[in-house]
Amino acid sequence: GDHGMPMNRRVIGTALLGLAALRAATAAPAARRVTVLAATDRGAVQPLIDDFERRYPAFAVDYRESGSVELYQRFVAEGGKAADVLWSSAMDLQIKLVNDGHALRYESPHVPNLPRWAVWKHEAYGTTFEPVGIAYHRHLLAAAEVPQTHAALTTLLRADTQRFRGRVATYDIERAGIGFLIAAHDAMVTPRFWELVRTLGACKASLHADTSSMLEGLAAGRSLLAYNVLGTYAEAFARRYPDIGVVYPSDYTLVLSRVALISRHAPNPQGARLWLDHMLSPQGQRLLADAGGLFSVRTDLARPRSALTVGQQLGAAARPIALGPALLAHLDRSKHAALLKRWRQEFEHSR
């Protein structure tokens, strides 16, 4: 009599466990992970992750976020064996990984709808279209003063260095890889860039590790103007703080892209390919643009924040930084050191 009860409970318990195990087996064969190492804030990507997991219930995304240099170092240290996809704004480091044989070649069906500069050897893919601009405080800078070109910025600052002293922000190109990449391209586009650096130095410009801290300084009224901010962040910020304006120089506007590659030693290459295609698909690009404010790179999505629309606004001024071996030049130790040295000399020249 009194032995019956525990026995039955055990039998029922075992039966339920069996049922649960069966259900788990049919739903997700060992819930196959897709590991994405990324330098993009998770908040910007969460809707994309949710949509992917809804669409492919057999997969679960393990999204790991860190700084772009740290990301690169971790990937190399692990021999690329712990990651399926590496997604980073450090365009040069991503191309170095491709060059060093770390990427898996994959021809995405979305290639026909991507700009040519955004695809390198079907091993690296640009996933966003991010123009670099000037952000300014609308109440501290009159509309007529807002510089529409790089030369106009130099002229504005030079005309009244006293007024702009300590009130201009830009990248610290020693600490920010992306800042260095932008400066290297500025210098390639025009030698007059060095006059601008000298003028920034004369104004005792504050140097920042990221766009966000430049924008926060603007919002607080500490700065009147920030040079070389990522437009995607600046525009999203300006939607929250209407005092902030963003302008893209009409002489030339550099355009960056967050680069994705599949690891050659990806534990889950099938999941990696699905994730990459999902990111590049019209739906994935819409989710990144709407949630993360990351402009779409596709050439067929006509929406306010897309390569198509922003590209039309910029016209001939748009200078996308193309994926390819030219990016490796900035990683050459002596060239890197030479650019940093020149930058420091010009910046400190008139201090």
Give an overview in words:
This protein has helices spanning 4-27, 42-55, 68-77, 91-99, 150-159, 161-164, 177-189, 193-202, 211-219, 231-240, 269-280, 282-292, 307-314, 333-348; strands at residues 32-38, 59-65, 85-88, 119-120, 124-126, 130-137, 168-171, 206-208, 225-230, 244-247, 253-256, 259-262, 318-320. Residues 2-13 and 21-30 have low confidence and may be disordered. Strands 6, 7, 8, 9, 10, 11 and 13 form a 7-stranded mixed beta sheet that branches. The chain contains 14 helices and 13 strands.
Structural descriptors:
single chain; 351 residues; alpha/beta; 7-stranded mixed β-sheet; 6-stranded mixed β-sheet; 46% helix; 17% strand; disordered N terminus
Roughly how many Å apart are the termini?
Answer: 94 Å
Q: Overall 3D geometry?
A: globular
Order of helices and strands: HEHEHEHEEEHHEHHEHEHEEEHHHEH
Largest β-sheet summary: 7 strands, mixed
Sequence stretches where pLDDT stays below 50 over 5 or more residues:
2-13, 21-30
What would you call the structural class? alpha/beta
Q: Which value, in Å, is the CA radius of gyration?
A: 24 Å
The tally of strands reads 13
Residue share in helices?
40-55%
> Can you count the helices?
14
* Binned strand content: 15-25%
Mean pLDDT: 90
Short description:
By secondary structure, the chain is α/β, with parallel strands linked by helices. 46% of the residues lie in helices and 17% in strands.
Task: Produce the secondary structure layout.
Blueprint (H helix, E strand, L loop, with lengths): L3 H24 L4 E7 L3 H14 L3 E7 L2 H10 L7 E4 L2 H9 L19 E2 L3 E3 L3 E8 L12 H10 L1 H4 L3 E4 L5 H13 L3 H10 L3 E3 L2 H9 L5 E6 H10 L3 E4 L5 E4 L2 E4 L6 H12 L1 H11 L14 H8 L3 E3 L12 H16 L3
Parallel strand pairs: 1-2, 1-3, 7-8, 7-9, 11-13
Antiparallel strand pairs: 3-12, 4-5, 5-12, 6-9, 6-10, 6-11
